Amino acid sequence: ELRPEISTSFFTGNVVVRQGTDILRAEEIEFAGDMGRMSGGGGVAVTLTETAPREALARTIEIGGQEMVYRPDMRTLALAKKAYVQLPGARLEAGAISAVFGRDGNAVESLAATTGVAVTKDRYVGRAEAASYQAATRRMTLTGRPVLTDGKGGSARGDKLTFDLSDDKILIENEGSGRAITVVRS
Predict the structure, then answer these.
(1) Torsion of CA 51, 96, 92, 85, to 10 degrees
(2) Cβ atoms 79, 44 nearer than 8 A
(3) Do the beta carbons of residue 128 and residue 146 sit within 8 Å?
(4) pLDDT of 32-60, one tens digit each?
(5) CA geometry: angle 15, 74, 143, nearest 5 deg
(6) Is 156 left (phi over 0), alpha (psi -120 to 50) or beta?
(7) Distance CA 56, CA 68 (A)
(8) CA distances for 20 relative to 25, 49, 170, angstroms
(9) What is the pLDDT of residues 96-130, one digit of tens each?
(10) What is the pTM for the complete model shown?
């Protein structure tokens, strides 16, 4: 459905949008206005191919959810309902995820996630109320009562849990005089 009088186009049924190597798939997509705003529903998956600073090879990031809103003026992509991001080395799942793109518009600069956050890296799963990711440092930080489990029954709790995706370290920190709690099961 095209509505040129209000600069809106609406597409339904297995929609695929390509720009260079980037691909957007959705059940429905609406392009609104001259500024490039987009919204989508019925399940959305965005595959981005980007070259990160200090890396020679391109990497693929997939971002998805049931609903999507893209605001190019703010360089943000917001996903809701079963939102996820598949990064090289880790997967982030949450009720809502917001991605901020760099000035060039084609590389994820940062991520913020809320509501039922889970980060999976190898056999480890971190759960928390919120998470943030900075592409420059390749660190995913969980806050809001984070818990790390290892798939073998072991767990650790603290105030802040950081996955360092560049060197495969996981850091558990506490603020103040409290102690981090670690339970290891053999």
Answers:
(1) -30
(2) yes
(3) yes
(4) 877 778 999 999 999 998 765 566 677 88
(5) 95
(6) beta
(7) 30
(8) 14, 9, 35
(9) 999 999 887 668 999 999 999 999 998 899 999 99
(10) 0.86
